[in-house]
Amino acid sequence: MQNITKWVRFPLIALIAALGFQAHADLSWSFSYKDIQTGGQSIDVSGTLTTTSVLINDVGGTGVSGYEIVSISGTRNGLAITGLNDDVNSPNSIIRNDVEFDNMLLVPGQFDYFGLSYFVGANEYNLFSQNNPLGGGDYEAPNGTFDYVPVELTLTAVPEPSTIFAGALLVLPLGISAVRILRSRRSA
């Protein structure tokens, strides 16, 4: 029993160290959406969002937790996305409400009602979800208009290199320990 305890200690320390590497790293999300009406001939967007790793509880009283979006990159219809709109008083902004709702990603992998606001050059686009906190559809509204276009959204968390490294730190010691335990049993 003492041999097993000795070999389990090392993987346990590795696990704790691996989890420590992920403590406050920002989170990355791959996203894409296309307009439903033309299957992406009118609107075709893809890119990466970066959120803080700090989970905000009860976003805007929805009862759902979420992350603040801090940056965006990608393309819309072949043109580069140039940045987030974090100014709720922007003349074209649909968001003109409490900044707490602006640029939030809810934990179930959707946007809140006020959505994500971003620029492509001088043009602003707002991507948002209806019927929050859960369910409903996703929409885009351009340049501060209320011309909501239904879109099909795909949003996926991107594993950070630290997560991959942490996984390797965990699996490698466990494998080494398993081999050593098996060898010690054969020797006995």
Q: Count up the domains.
A: 1
Characterize the overall form.
elongated
- Strand percentage lies at 25-35%
| Order of helix and strand elements from N to C terminus | HEEEEEEEEEEEH
Radius of gyration: 22 Å
Straight-line N-to-C gap:
13 Å
Helix content: 25-40%
How large is the count of helical segments? 2
Structural class: alpha+beta
**Low confidence ranges:** 14-24, 92-101
Number of strands: 11
What is the mean pLDDT?
Answer: 75
Largest sheet features: 11 strands, antiparallel
Structure description:
With 188 residues, the protein is α+β, with helices and mostly antiparallel strands. It has one domain. It has two helices and eleven strands; from the N terminus they run H-E-E-E-E-E-E-E-E-E-E-E-H. Strands 1, 2, 3, 4, 5, 6, 7, 8, 9, 10 and 11 form an eleven-stranded antiparallel beta sheet that branches. The two termini are 13 Å apart.
